[in-house]
Structure formats: structure tokens, C-alpha cells
Amino acid sequence: MTVLEEDDCWQLLDTSSVARLAVLVGDDLEIFPINYVVDGRAIVFRTGEGTKLAAVTIARNVAMEIDGYHRARREAWSVVVKGTAERVEDFDEIYQTEELPLRSWSDHPKQWFVRLLPQQVTGRRFAVAGY
Amino acid sequence: MTVLEEDDCWQLLDTSSVARLAVLVGDDLEIFPINYVVDGRAIVFRTGEGTKLAAVTIARNVAMEIDGYHRARREAWSVVVKGTAERVEDFDEIYQTEELPLRSWSDHPKQWFVRLLPQQVTGRRFAVAGY
């Protein structure tokens, strides 16, 4: 197993668009796929009025993970971003955020933007026996 | 968005092998990929002595998610299993578990088996705007 440099983690974050987000709401652990973009050194994603937004804005801490597989090298990698999430409330901020190349994974109406402020970005790469 | 029947969720679980597992250890939310198999109505995966095992066995609750994309239908789906995780301690149980077609995603030595006992299995399917 190889620990990835933080810059390599950001490069992988930049070149991916689907992640899984884990949030804690009370005692309830939620996990769901998100479509995201990197904005500077933050992560931005859109969400609707439902469970996801409630979960993310109530949650103190969130953890986001992306992973992939390099078939030729028989290597998998995984990057985890831990931090806090906040709803983007300011209209100017939203306007700027609308400019981001953020496609929604679901075509369900999604009105809110959420910004994940990373406190820790870690990654690893490891050989894979079978996939 | 379509809510999936529990049987459909199990069929998707049966035909996948890589999931992401979210666990809470104290205030720390962990999320990582796992290679799993379905064993009856439980989920079994292997893990090493490191963070994963510690996280899973200390955690009260875990949430596991799989997802996929049906390109022709432009539909994505996501299945979440919530429950408790326990280390498989009994040797007979481990022997039976060794018979499962459980390939390790990583070839790092992994000595322990963990069984996730589902308390809730939910799934949804949704149209995708772009991927």
C-alpha cells in the first residue's frame, strides 16, 4: 500500500466527478452518491430539499470518498476528504457556483449548493488481487 | 426517482462485489471501499488489523452503499444497507466463510472476516442528466 501525497489526491479529485458522501445525523449514518466539482480547495455539490440536504446541513462532520481502478497496473486507489459542510447561502456565492461545470447526477430538481470545506485529505494506492 | 423493492436491492447486492462502507468511531467518520459477498441475508467482507477492523468492530452502526449506472436507460441506482457489524469469531463460522467466493480487493494480508447484519436495506433508481 502506498500513501498518496495531498497534491496527488487533489489531482484525482479534479479528474473524478462522482463520490460517495457519508454524514451522521443524530445516531443515523447516511451514505449516498454525489456529483461534485472541485472549486479551489473546496468541494461543491448540488442537492435537493430532501434527506441529503437535511443530513448535510445538520451534520457536523462529513467524509467523502472517491476510488478507482487502474487495470493495467492492477492497482486501486482511494481518496478520502474529511471536513465540514455548509449550505452556500450568499447569492453572489451561488452565482459564482452556478458557473462551475457542475452537472447533476440526477435530473431531479436540485436547488441548493453545498460546500465541503476539507480539513483532511488522504489517499492510498494498493495492489489488487482480483476485481 | 423510483424506490426499489427489497428483493431488487438484494439482487443488486448479489451481482456487485465492491461497496463503500461508512463507520463512525467516536466522532470520526470513516469511509472506505470494501470487497464483499452476500451470505444468506448478511454481508461478509475481509479486513486486516488496521483502521478498518478497529473502526468496524468499535462502531455501533455501519452503512454500506453500492451504486451503478445503466447507460442505455440513462439511469443510476443506489442501494444502502444499514446495520451492525461483528467480527466472525467462531472457527466453524470462519471455515464456512472461507468457502464464500470472497476475493480481496487488496492483496494485503487480511486475516479477519466481518459480518454486517442488515437492519435496513433500501434502494432507489433515478434518471441521470449527465455522467
Automatic annotation (TrEMBL), chains A, B:
Domain of life (superkingdom): Bacteria
The name this protein goes by in its record: Pyridoxamine 5'-phosphate oxidase family protein
Organism of this sequence: Phytoactinopolyspora halotolerans
